[in-house]
Amino acid sequence: MIQGFWYIIPILLIAIVLAKPIVSVYTSDARLILATVPALRLVCGVMVLFNAAYILFQGVAATGNTRITLAIEAFAIVIYLWYSWTITVVWKFSITAIWTNEYLYFVLLGILSYFYFTFGNWRRKVI
Question: Where are the domains of the chain?
């Protein structure tokens, strides 16, 4: 897991610092570039969580307990969709604020996977 951080951090720092030139590759519309840069920076930050949470979640999948894997993924997705709908439709937040749903998803995925390894019965699971 630590090795993943060593690879991703420099790439994310470059993407954060050079966000405008990176977005400019895809569009020349100045308003769109200004609107996109904050969301790109926010998504760069969530990639650190993605690294840790996804490794933990894949560990849960590797235990062979597909019911728990499905339950963790389904719960995280239901909360993710509910949060996304609420901040988009009900509260009408900006697009950058809507992208915070990625933080919620990966935090849930990581915490639930960690709890399974800490308190779950995975050591005694017979495949």
Answer: 2-124
